[in-house]
User: Fold this.
Amino acid sequence: FLMQGPVSVFEDGIYAGDARLPDTRPSEKVLISYSLDLASEVRVENESAPEQIASVKIVRGVMMLQRRYLNTTKYFISSKREGERSLIVEQPISSGWDLVAPPKNLEKTTDKYRFRLQLAPGKTCEFSTSEQRLVDQQILLSNINDRGIELYLSQKSVPSSVKDALKKLVTLQSQESAILLEKQNVDQQIKRI
Assistant:
């Protein structure tokens, strides 16, 4: 067992750099960063897609929605070296998010994803990862208004059976409003009498 601490790295008998070693168990493999590769450049861009409705169903007067949030991280890696390079991209694991792309060349640690890439000499490589988070939501149909119903009717991801049920709900709500208005008129007539 090795306790965490500083380490000096030598390559072919020449000092290559310093690193910090984490607590390491016997037979555990640890990746350490000990220097900068000045012949390689990495640019990172993050994109968030608008939320999408992943699934919708209605059960006993409750609409159950599942919303999908998608984050994409793009890496643009360029190399000015003459030979091909082997490269490892590390990305932190976000709590509550699941990795959906890419499924290959993946190595997972307790807090990071690692992707192994081959970088051609003098070329720029584009590599991207996507993570999704699914969030469940429940809406009582008795609490939903016309605007909310129109919003769900306009969504392409809402199944036709749910859209039909929502259209029926609009009809029933308008009938209920007409009955309540008629009841108010009758109550006012009774008070006048």
User: Anything to note?
Assistant: The chain has a mean pLDDT of 87. The radius of gyration is 29 Å. Residues 160-192 form the longest helix (33 residues). The longest strand covers residues 40-59.
